[in-house]
Amino acid sequence: MGLFRKYHGKQKYKGILRNCIIGIVLLAIAVVTLFPIYYMIISSFGAPTEAGGASYSLFPRTFTLASYRFFFDYSIYSVRWILNSLIVASSVTVCNVIFASLAGYAFAKLRFPGCNFFFFMLLVAMMIPYQVTQVPLYILMANTLHLQDTYVALIAPTLVTCYNVFLAKQFFTSLPTSIIESAKIEGCSQPGIVMKIVMPLSKTILSVMAITTFLGEWNTFFWPFLICNTEKMQTIQVGLKNFSFANTTYFAPMMAGATVSALPMFILFFALQKYFLEGVTVGAVKG
């Protein structure tokens, strides 16, 4: 009995020690992950005059909202940048959720001529680096279609992405075919099956698709920077570069703009975090 208690005590001690080590490691990872966000927010409350030579201190010398006022007063298009990003990201997100989910359902549950070939081409397209397509895409939009500095040019290239179609297809493949067959026997049409059965069962994957698409489109810089020549049509991420010059950088106002631009992402994530977390764990548990 004494040996058992001694062994049990050692195991309990090892368990506590292991949990402490895991907790310390996770805390360190959390600090490293959250520190850039903290530094962005705390720097945004510094005075605009601190910007040129950023002190990189953990706290600003003065705690003020002047940098936020500077950001909105700096250009007449400051609010327009946020509105442009909101229009582009929302449009791309809605279109991807609708069209990518329908395409994914077609690949997963319908059989049509060339189904496997088109899906194979989709996988091939996913392997092509994003940067490779930018030059021909710019020539098409700017020189051929003359759509430079328009919402169409900002939205059209990512109206439906291969990744979202692939993501939807993989999820719909896991749905029981028997449910769809039962609906067909009951006389439900294909649009009815999609709207009344498939989509309600797909809230998780559609929410994950909406979050990742919106965040990706909101944060994108290269394509809006390439296709937009005027300040009026710039998105918020491109607009922030206007605070950086050859001789100085308005650091605090830039951080204020970055903080403002991050708010929609935080709101979207916390509004849909339930579905997002469920989407991360889909397929992790069997039975």
TrEMBL record:
This is Carbohydrate ABC transporter permease. Signal peptide: none annotated. PANTHER family: ABC TRANSPORTER PERMEASE PROTEIN MG189-RELATED (PTHR43744:SF12), ABC TRANSPORTER PERMEASE PROTEIN MG189-RELATED-RELATED (PTHR43744). SUPFAM superfamilies: MetI-like (SSF161098). InterPro entries: MetI-like, MetI-like_sf. Pfam families: BPD_transp_1. GO terms for biological process: transmembrane transport. Belongs to the binding-protein-dependent transport system permease family. Keywords: Cell membrane, Membrane, Transmembrane, Transmembrane helix, Transport. PROSITE patterns: ABC_TM1 (PS50928). Residues 82-272 form the ABC transmembrane type-1 domain. It is found in: Cell membrane. It is a multi-pass membrane protein. GO terms for cellular component: plasma membrane. The chain crosses the membrane at residues 21-41, 81-105, 117-139, 151-172, 250-272.
